[in-house]
Amino acid sequence: xxxxxxxxxxxxxxxxxxxxxxxxxxxxxxxxxxxxxxxxxxxxxxxxxxxxxxxxxxxxxxxxxxxxxxxxxxxxxxxxxxxxxxxxxxxxxxxxxxxxxxxxxxxxxxxxxxxxxxxxxxxxxxxxxxxxxxxxxxxxxxxxxxxxxxxxxxxxxxxxxxxxxxxxxxxxxxxxxxxxxxxxxxxxxxxxxxxxxxxxxxxxxxxxxxxxxxxxxxxxxxxxxxxxxxxxxxxxxxxxxxxxxxxxxxxxxxxxxxxxxxxxxxxxxxxxxxxxxxxxxxxxxxxxxxxxxxxxxxxxxxxxxxxxxxxxxxxxxxxxxxxxxxxxxxxxxxxxxxxxxxxxxxxxxxxxxxxxxxxxxxxxxxxxxxxxxxxxxxxxxxxxxxxxxxxxxxxxxxxxxxxxxxxxxxxxxxxxxxxxxxxxxxxxxxxxxxxxxxxxxxxxxxxxxxxxxxxxxxxxxxxxxxxxxxxxxxxxxxxxxxxxxxxxxxxxxxxxxxxxxxxxxxxxxxxxxxxxxxxxxxxxxxxxxxxxxxxxxxxxxxxxxxxxxxx
Amino acid sequence: xxxxxxxxxxxxxxxxxxxxxxxxxxxxxxxxxxxxxxxxxxxxxxxxxxxxxxxxxxxxxxxxxxxxxxxxxxxxxxxxxxxxxxxxxxxxxxxxxxxxxxxxxxxxxxxxxxxxxxxxxxxxxxxxx
Lengths: 551, 129
Fold this sequence. Notes:
The complex is a heterodimer of chains A (551) and B (129). Chain A has 551 residues and is mainly α. Helix content of chain A is 74%, strand content 0%. By secondary structure, chain B is α+β, with helices and mostly antiparallel strands. Chain B has one helix spanning 2-22, and strands spanning 35-39, 44-46, 52-57, 67-71, 77-79, 90-94, 102-111, 117-126. Residues 1-31 of chain B have low confidence and may be disordered.
């Protein structure tokens, strides 16, 4: 049970992200089905109309099942965590508001799935039923959100939450259906695209309206944007929203000029895939936001602009390693940890999710060690980016071996990440693997080896097919997970400053993943842009790592 | 081709699992309900024992499903009866027996009405007369 509690904070964010993605697609595909597929069916050939109906129905069913599972697991996780920590019995827990709302949400989704199950086209009553149940899901989610726990401006924040989530559903939630529908005949794809543009525009409007409410209720000032975890994550969301709007604007143009050829929608499909990837990243940030207190509630200990400029003023990278003997020895460190925890607890009350620990104390040599690691990793990523750029010119055959630089990075991580353990420290390899963090570092090194070897094999032509997508998908997954887990913390300044350096890394990783995906999938005119864009992102990541500082 | 697909599928599954594992490191995370103020305040050295403890949060709470424990200098834990009629953002409890001299800890766990669980400690001490 203790292990479950240890995982509670992390698991709840990941499940919440999965729930958000699934529910957004569920609501969006219901809207797509009822407000787009049904009315447009009579304007297209019967074959296309049948296929469009099937696409919408299948997406509703698939996303409904996924949403049902994620919502149930999230509710179960909280229920089990409460049962493990309170002595009031399972029966008393069932009366909690969030359990009742989760139950209502699940029930609405079950009935919605039942309504979506028949293969026939939905009659008016069934359509109203689908829309009504989607609205009920939205209502249940809204009344179980952050907004309901507020003491001030609750009505405004509840309305903002509902508008924001409805907007995401109208716009992002309809993308999977749209992507599949673009494979219909070009005339049908064109009218679908034009109608979808209208839904997406409504969605953008609703999102912006909701965001305005969040600004007044949860953030409130520019200082809160960079000074708190909530604010900086909301800013990351805004940056991605701008990216999405740019992609959406390009889509809007293309949707109205779909060429009457089978390949006419290829460019559009690439843009929509990128939109979906960034959309998932946005929802991952939204899930992460649910685990931090609103910026408006943390008026003290915010990071100041001066501290940010001081921290991010470039300095020459640390390329000389501190002596391993200078690092904190475990026994002393354990004592320091205990003292530090006592001191922290005594200074002010902090709030934690179950199972969560405190930031470990560090000394100057530890910081130097970490900065040295980041800086050399930055040099290697920079080399990868530069070599990939050279490779993109097609004039330097040797440059195609750039994935091998990642092998160097893997070896570096393997040796340097845990100084107290093998091969640098006194703790043997097998003994060190009892520590989960050491295991994670070793696995991460092996993961980098896996990427490097698979991508190198692709470059040499030894592997073909879908293995090509391992590299871009890994970049995307890395970026999304970095965004999903970056929650700092009851406003501890140091953690917020570190987080500020990691958010741009995550954003660049998401863009790089999309660009590499586009390079691989075409069409040629977009692939050419992608070929230059993702190495540029890697160079950006390398430079950010080179500038990384912890003090 | 199928071999390539299988390799890709396995690699992706591995990547997803490993990236997930990489996030399991014990990074502290804040949560919704944070303490706004408390009586006694954290770290207080009191000359006389309090008759009542009060913690004010930033979120509305489910009092029935929240918990307050008083942990004594010897580590003994005493559950406190939370007052049900208090402010929605306040967790308050009377102390039936005044705590004696030594280092005490008020351990709280709250369920916010949005379903988030948060916990924490408020240490204080009672000085010997």
